[in-house]
Amino acid sequence: MPGAVDQSGPRYKHKLEKAPKQADKYRDDYQVRKKRVAEAKEKRIGKFKDGAGSRKEIKGAEDIRKARVEKQKKMEKNARPSKKRSFGVHVPKPRLVLSPVIEMKIQLSWAPTLCLWASLIGKVLGEPIPAPTGKYNVGAQRFVVSFLDEDDVVWPNGVSTEYLVTLYYPTSDKKPCPKPYLEPELVELYEDLWNYNISHLTSTLRWNASYLDEGTGPTLLFGPGGWGPPTDGSYIVISDLVSHGYVVVAFDHVYEQPFVRYPNGTGVYGLSPAFNNYTLAWVEELHAVRVRQQLHFIDYLPSLVAELDAPFKTTDFGAFGVSLGGSAALTLALESDAVAAAINVDGTNWGRLNSTSDSDLKKPSMILGFGGHNANSDPTWRNYRAWQTGWWRLFSVDGSVHADWEDRTFWKIFGTTATMGPIDGNRMVNITRTFIRAFFDEVLLGVEQPLLDTPSDDFPEVHWDEIQNGS
Question: Where is this region: Disordered (predicted)?
Answer without folding.
Answer: 1-28
